[in-house]
Amino acid sequence: MLLSSLPAHYGRAALLAALMLIGQSALAADAIEDKAKICAACHGEQGIPIQKTFPVIWGQNEGYLIYQLRDFQSGARKNELMSPIAATIDKADINAFAAYFSKLKWPNLQQPIAPADIAAKAQATAASVGCPGCHLAYFQGDGTTARLAGQNHDYLLKTMNDFRDKTRGNNPGMSDLMKATSPDDLAVLAQYLAGLQIEAYLGNGR
Ligand code: HEC
Ligand code: HEC
Predict the structure, then answer these.
(1) Ligand 2 geometric centre to CA of 8 (Å)
(2) Residue 140: pLDDT band by 50, 70, 90 thresholds?
């Protein structure tokens, strides 16, 4: 694909390309698979995002995907690339997009497994904050709570800091938790979570 040959900061080019695709093909009758081709411009043809600061959405939990699309539409969550795309999504398609992407297999981003000392530190912080109480034992999340395991490292770090300084303001609870966690601990958590390979434990082929 042409986009893959563009240099580093091509988020804007991808946005323009996606908006052009929408202009050409956003007929109400299009199947959700066709409409989802627009999303691949940034979230990846095979579910591997084109930039490390972009999130994996393939295999993400359905309820969580619904909430995010609604929040981008309402403006509760804002991003210069994703907000204009969300604005073009028909409200009636939000559930279909979420169902479609949640059923795709989470991609392996080949991120390194965290070394033992980092893992131990991350687990201690996670236990003291209580992350697994909501994100569950393998950080697979459920329902409206996000899967974190194997998510893009740079995206994880960015979004936790965005919660922390309220750049991401759509979940005050997560913002409070991130404010109570030091930037160093967030960096350790991002490294650990990005490297988690959980398919073998989940055993459900996702
Ligand atoms: C121009 C690039 C671009 C396109 C095209 C795009 N996205 Fe996004 N998307 C992003 C970025 C960047 C983010 C992360 C925003 C942030 O950091 O807060 C994002 C975030 C998301 C999230 C939140 C994921 C999470 O883990 O919180 C969902 C859901 C999503 N996009 C769905 C879609 C869907 C569905 C489409 C197609 C209709 C689409 N995106 C098209 C760039 C894009
Ligand atoms: C009380 C429950 C709860 C606890 C505890 C919690 N989270 Fe969350 N977390 C959530 C929910 C719910 C969301 C989805 C927020 C939204 O809708 O935007 C979330 C979202 C996230 C996201 C964004 C995922 C994405 O794809 O954008 C990250 C990263 C995250 N949490 C990390 C953590 C870490 C690390 C901890 C522990 C230090 C933690 N959370 C503790 C409930 C929790």
Answers:
(1) 28
(2) very high
pLDDT tens sequence across 25-49: 554 557 999 999 999 999 999 999 9
- CB of 79 sitting under 6 A from ligand 2: no
Evaluate if pTM is beyond 0.85. Answer: yes
The answer to whether the CB of 152 is under 6 A from ligand 2 is no
| Residues in a beta bridge with 142 | 145
The answer to whether residue 51 scores a pLDDT higher than 60 is yes
Is 91:142 a contact under the CB 8 Å cutoff?
no
Q: How far apart are CA 85 and CA 79, in angstroms?
A: 10
Q: How far apart are CA 150 and CA 143, in angstroms?
A: 18
Tokens of 144: 């409206």
Please give the domain boundaries of the chain with CATH numbers for all domains.
Answer: 2-103 (1.10.760.10), 116-202 (1.10.760.10)
Q: What is the pLDDT of residues 73-99, one digit of tens each?
A: 999 999 999 999 999 999 999 999 999
Nearest residue to 173 (alpha-carbon basis) of 142, 146, 195? 146
Give the pocket of ligand 1 (CB within 6 Å). Answer: 11, 14-15, 18, 38-39, 41-43, 54-55, 57, 60, 65, 68-69, 79, 81-82, 85, 89, 97, 146, 158-159, 168
CA dihedral 161, 44, 113, 8 (to 10 degrees): -70
pLDDT at 29: 56
